[in-house]
Amino acid sequence: MSNIKPVMITSNQSWIEGDAVRQLENTANLPGMVRAVGLPDLHPGKGIPIGAAFLSDGIVYPHLVGNDIGCGMGLWQTDMRLSKFKLDKSVKRLKGFEDPWDGDRADVLAQHGLPETLSPKALGTIGSGNHFAEFQRVETVSDEAAFSACGLNQRQILLLVHSGSRGLGHAILEAHIRKHSGAGLKQNSAHFNDYITKHDQAVIWAVANRKIIAERFMTALGAGGICLLDICHNSVTQHQDRWLHRKGAAPSDKGLVVIPGSRGTLSYIVRPRLENADLSLFSLAHGAGRKWKRSDAKARLSRRYSVADLTRTKLGGRVICEDKALIYEEAPEAYKDVAVVIDDLQCAGLIDVIATLRPLISYKTRRR
Can you tell me the distance from the alpha carbon of 242 to that of 237, in angstroms, rounded to the nearest whole number? Predict the structure, then answer.
């Protein structure tokens, strides 16, 4: 067994659970591992940490990518003017997204080079857990030149979509576990080639899914828009002749990155600093990171807040979530302070902040 000591991108102001560190250390010493990095949003997962990146040589571990292959963040700038955006009216119009998308699924899959049998019914749906669609406004601009260069406009409403490959990614991981349990796949073996093919399809599927979700939400408000960025944070990709696993880690070598907080805090648009990117395996935090387990959130918060209380945030935003358990599980208090995460990344020389975004409407789920 190797003796790899993970790098931690954190500071004294960060709170990282011991279980997360132990999971990081254990995973870093799987056969074939070369390097491991824990990011400021590191927190425990089901046996492996979330908010981490791992580099392996000659072997890939599907369970490090997880069951939501291709999950990521897409940011759209809509053609809706902030001055004309009606918050409560928009809340009423945002519904029906749990129903299947009524567009031409076969055509979309074909356009992306995917088989038409590849989970067509789930296309255009957000999913559960921490997935969401959120309308936002620009709060502050830190770098005017970079802000303008990437096409951002302070007068326009933005839409952030967080979703992945839905049941497709889950089926791929389950099939692997049935055959191989948690074992890795040796490079260029038949099983390796099969997994990488399916993995890459799921990543493409997830990109298409975020695009359809965005179009559905914008259409509901009579709007259109352009995609400014789309970043995947659950994947395995080739990196310097080795394999880079990202589990809840955004790439820093694909352009601008959006790092969301919770539904009650700001999100950040950042520009990666490539001169220091190798320190973090070309990876960045993908969000604030959970502070509490889902099973603990309701018990901690239900005496302090009613469901109605949680439908409005301290920043004046609205929350659409008609799942009573989920609205507690995803409460802002259940997450770490995203400002600390951002500060840690800045202090490590990994990012420059371009702008912050304020949540206006956070959509999780409605009853059908």
Answer: 8
Q: How confident is the model at residue 216 (pLDDT cuts 50, 70, 90)?
A: very high
Helix (H, G, I), strand (E, B) or coil at 71: coil
The domain ranges of the chain are: 7-365
> Rounded to the nearest 5°, which phi and psi values hold at 301?
-110, -20
Q: Taking the CB of residue 32, how many other CB atoms lie within 10 A of it?
A: 18
Q: CA distances (Å), 51 to each of 96, 163, 282, in order?
A: 32, 16, 13
Active-site annotation holds for 286: yes
* DSSP letter for each residue of 175-237: HHHHHHTT--EETTSHHHHHHHHHHHHHHHHHHHHHHHHHHHHHHHTT--EEEEEEEE-EEEE
Q: Please tell me what DSSP assigns to residue 57.
A: S
Q: How far is CA 274 from CA 161, 254, 259, 283, in A?
A: 25, 10, 17, 10
CATH architecture for residues 7-365: Alpha-Beta Complex (3.90)
Euclidean distance between CA atoms 237 and 55, whole angstroms: 10
pLDDT tens-digit readout, 51-82: 999 999 999 999 999 999 999 999 999 999 99
Catalytic pick among 131, 199, 233, 286: 286
Handedness of CA 179, 118, 213, 318 (dihedral sign): negative
